[in-house]
Amino acid sequence: MRANIVHPGADELTYEIREIVEVGKDLERMGTTILWENIGDPVAKGEKIPAWIKEIIATTIAEDDKSFAYSPTKGLLETREFLADMRNKEGGATITPEDILFFNGLGDAISKVYTYLNKTARVIGPNPAYPTHSSAEGAHAGSHHLTYRLNPHRNWLPDLEDLRNKVKYNPNVAGILIINPDNPTGMVYPEKVLREIVAIAREFDLFIISDEIYANIVYGEEKMVPLSQVLDGVPGIAMKGLSKEIPWPGARSGWVEFYNKEKDPVFARYAKSLVDAKMLEVCSTTLPQKVLPKVFSDKRYGEHLKARAGEYKKRAEIAYNIFRSVSSVVAPKPGGAFYMSVVFEDGALNGHQTLPIENAEVKKFIEQKIAGVSPDKRFAYYLMASTGICVVPLSGFNSDLHGFRVTLLEPDEDKFRQTMQTLADKIGEYVRS
Q1: What is the pLDDT of residue 398?
Q2: Which of 56, 246, 315, 395 is deepest in the core (most CB within 10 A)?
């Protein structure tokens, strides 16, 4: 073309969680039955939505025609009032309804948060990274996403010295991202660690983004501490949503909460730019906003969350006890969200290992696909072709670690245990091949 129309950050837009689906679909067409352990959709995995939640939604649709209408740009006032009141009762940074902005899911929020940053401003995030964040931040900057290390040998806790040094020696870093509980590792940030991250942000005059989409899915020893309770005057943004905890991923409803806007005029102006950008779209989906206060305030909701967390805890224990016996990997027990990340020990992968594939057509297809891929992606492809189990390689999470993420979503305990055991067996077989 006469002019180059490609965005300088286009190459940063990758999402291995869904990209690997294309390979899986090809294998399905060749006769392989796929077990989809790649994506965090509890509903697709068979989780049933409680009847009482469905009733609230159905009644709202039947009785309130305004659930079909536009909402205000920031979101329904009564819903934002409800959320602000709920947040303020927790303590910490206080907010008003004007500090809350709804989006069409957190994917929309993440895109806007990075798109409307100054082009030179960078946000450093965890490694392994969640690709929606890392891709959006990298695309915004036209450069590879900046990360600080999470250490699998210390239960995925962040390397704070690494974070501090990267902030100190990169003056373009304007913000720090945390995902709490973390995706893809299932780690929950201890309060002490959060306060140390806040101290770094204060020292270098940064803001903090905390993706808290899994805030109510916590089942380990570590308590989930919201960003609002530790900021102590530092500007911050918390990201929340309905997709994981109701769960209602198809609602595409999420929101951000701005903390301490009054402390920094530049941060306040940035927050306003996100509202202005949302105004160009008119508003976010109305129906989920209508039902949110009714669901969250229902006395059955707490028990609903508790029961779901109990199920994930049970599966986390099963997976941890299976993988801990595999000598070639590190697999810390998750304490939140519904994922577990498994890392191959240094030297375990050599780029020549294989697994047996019975179907000749599938074998030929996979051998063509593995050319030039990372060692963990090679393992993931062979695993899927050999067993049908689809996992996401950690290299797809903007990480230099070689491993994979698996979900804790399979509701059939026997099937879940069998899947995890097959994975463990195939790791051993692959490493020895």
Answers
A1: 87
A2: 246
CB under 8 Å to 254, separation ≥6 — which residues?
102, 103, 104, 105, 106, 107, 108, 109, 213, 239, 240, 241, 242, 243
Contact 123, 177 (CB under 8 A): yes
For 342-390, write each residue's pLDDT tens digit. 999 999 998 899 999 999 998 999 998 888 889 999 999 999 999 999 9
Confidence at residue 5, expressed as pLDDT on a 0 to 100 scale: 46
Q: What is the pTM of this model?
A: 0.93
The CATH number of the structural domain formed by 51-298 is: 3.40.640.10
- 10-47+301-432 has which fold? Aspartate Aminotransferase, domain 1 (3.90.1150)
DSSP 36: E
CA 275 to chain centre: 23
Q: In the chain, which residues fall in CATH 3.90.1150.10? A: 10-47+301-432
Give the H or E element holding residue 42. Answer: none
Report CA 378 to chain centroid distance, whole Å: 23
Question: What pLDDT does residue 21 have?
Answer: 82
Model confidence pLDDT, tens digit, residues 308-326: 999 999 999 999 999 999 9
d(CA 57, CA 47): 18
The first and second tokens of residue 125, run together, are 């995030």
Nearest to 308 by CA among 223, 217, 242: 217
- Which ranges constitute the DSSP H helices of 286-412? 286-297, 299-323, 360-369, 375-387
